[in-house]
Specification:
Radius of gyration: 16 Å
Bound molecules: guanosine-5'-triphosphate, magnesium ion
Shape: globular
Oligomer: single chain
Mean pLDDT: 82
Strand content: 15-25%
Number of domains: 1
CATH superfamily: P-loop containing nucleotide triphosphate hydrolases
Low-confidence stretches: 8-22
Distance between the termini: 24 Å
CATH topology: Rossmann fold
């Protein structure tokens, strides 16, 4: 996959997954998955979701959203999946519960934003009970510079005391400049959830 490097390299689950938008009026989805995006303030989290769901980017930031999550329907092979992507301003304990995947985000141009990831990793492991839980680390606003090294990310994983028992996806993205990579990133996260749940083996 073009955009994603992983902390531990692994083969893609499927070579060329056909994914397309499903009309919400179609038959109900087979799976409903909750994804959390957690990280520091003003690093581009909501823009990332808007870039994926609406294929838009705004320099002024995304318009005020009245909902706590955005939905995106996907078709992977013959399996209908609805993603509910949460971007909580102040995550309560309830937000962490029942998440199927968690994306930890930082700002590539501001290393200080990594610190918030440490706190959020602790919270996820305290309040989320679903295991296995696919996780990704994503550097946002890549076009503004990259001041965070891959070693910083590896240190982060080690210092949290969470030696990954499975692969973490690791990507650096610019929602402003490359929406295709944003799409590929979410596709990869969705495939990892499917993989962890043995979805493809059920067919
Ligand atoms: N240059 C550049 N700017 C970006 C990018 N993504 C987001 N931004 C800008 O960064 C600012 C913050 O973006 P948001 O998406 O609101 O960030 P957030 O993390 O949701 O912020 P809070 O919800 O306030 O914590 C906005 O002005 C966006 O336009 C990017 O890829 N490149
Ligand atoms: Mg936001």
């Amino acid at each position: 996959m073009g955009c994603c490097c992983t902390v531990n390299e692994r083969q893609p689950l499927i070579d060329d997954p056909p994914a397309s938008f499903i009309d919400p009026d179609d038959a109900p989805e087979d799976f409903l998955w909750k994804i959390l995006i957690l990280g520091d303030k003003s690093i581009g989290k909501t823009s990332l979701i808007e870039g994926y769901v609406s294929k838009t980017f705004s320099e002024k930031g995304p318009a005020f959203l009245t909902t706590e999550f955005r939905e995106k329907d996907l078709l992977i092979r013959d399996i209908k999946i609805r993603l509910m992507i949460y971007d909580p301003l102040v995550p309560s304990h309830a937000f962490y519960r029942g998440a199927h995947a968690v994306i930890f985000a930082y700002d590539c141009s501001n290393p200080d934003t990594l610190a918030e990831i440490y706190r959020k990793i602790d919270a996820v492991h305290k309040y989320n009970s679903l295991e296995p839980l696919p996780k990704a680390i994503v550097g946002l606003r890549r076009d503004l510079g990259d001041r965070v090294s891959d070693d910083d990310i590896k240190n982060l994983l080690q210092k949290t005391g969470i030696i990954p028992t499975r692969d973490w996806i690791f990507c650096k993205l610019s929602t402003k400049e490359n929406l295709e990579e944003v799409h590929q990133f979410f596709q990869r996260v969705t495939e990892d959830i499917a993989d962890d749940r043995n979805l493809y083996n059920q067919n």
